[in-house]
From TrEMBL:
NCBIfam families in alphabetical order: pgsA (TIGR00560)
Protein name: CDP-diacylglycerol--glycerol-3-phosphate 3-phosphatidyltransferase
Function: This protein catalyzes the committed step to the synthesis of the acidic phospholipids.
Catalyzed reaction equations: a CDP-1,2-diacyl-sn-glycerol + sn-glycerol 3-phosphate = a 1,2-diacyl-sn-glycero-3-phospho-(1'-sn-glycero-3'-phosphate) + CMP + H(+)
Subcellular location(s) of the protein: Cell membrane
Membrane-crossing segments per the record: 12-28, 40-62, 83-105, 165-182
Gene Ontology CC: plasma membrane
Protein family per UniProt: Belongs to the CDP-alcohol phosphatidyltransferase class-I family.
Length: 192
């Protein structure tokens, strides 16, 4: 297994720790940040999320630079992103950091794309993420990081940057899903 794939797997292995940090009621205190408070456990989860999300860029960079792109990587990388983002968004509903309807749309898009990839895999075709999918992932990662930080540093000026980014991520999630299906509809049309 090459280094990019190991980095992708490390992202998957960080997800349970991330979930524990957000779902177990640790009493580590909290900080006042402008109009909001930031629990220390959420800060720790944000740092872990940022580290995990950064491996997405690093593994892709290494794979392309050293010609280490593999079918396993094409499969694992988007899966790791989906697992990390889905875990965060589902926990956001419980923590009242994101509306359920937004989370449902984002996760539904991920299931739909995964279904298309499974059909393609059955036909021997590997569908890698496109440019729109990368924009979608980037906006989701930024939105999640800022929401985990309870809108820091924007909480000092009262601007809901995390919420705005969540809706921008929703827009790119829907748009990239449509784009992905349009560009790859031949897989559904031509499947046996």
């Amino acid at each position: 297994m090459n280094l990019p794939n190991k980095l992708t797997l490390s992202r998957i292995f960080l997800i349970p720790i991330f979930i524990i940090l957000l779902s177990v009621p640790f009493e580590w205190g909290e900080w006042n940040i402008g109009e909001n408070t930031l629990p220390v456990s959420h800060f720790a989860a944000a740092l872990l999320f940022i580290v995990a999300a950064s491996t997405d860029w690093i593994d892709g960079y290494i794979a392309r630079k050293h010609n280490l792109v593999t079918n396993l990587g094409k499969f694992l990388d988007p899966l790791a992103d989906k697992l990390l983002v889905s875990a965060a968004l589902i926990l956001f509903v419980e923590l009242e950091l994101a509306p359920a309807w937004v989370v449902i749309i984002i996760i539904s898009r991920e299931f739909a794309i995964t279904g298309l990839r499974l059909v393609a895999a059955g036909e021997g075709i590997v569908l890698a993420a496109g440019k729109m999918g990368k924009i979608k992932t980037a906006t989701q990662m930024v939105a999640i990081a800022v929401l985990l930080l309870h809108n820091f540093p924007f909480s000092y000026i009262g601007f809901p940057f995390g919420t705005v980014m969540l809706y921008i991520a929703l827009f790119f999630t829907v748009l990239s899903g449509i784009d992905y299906f349009v560009k790859n509809w031949h897989v559904m049309r031509d499947s046996k």
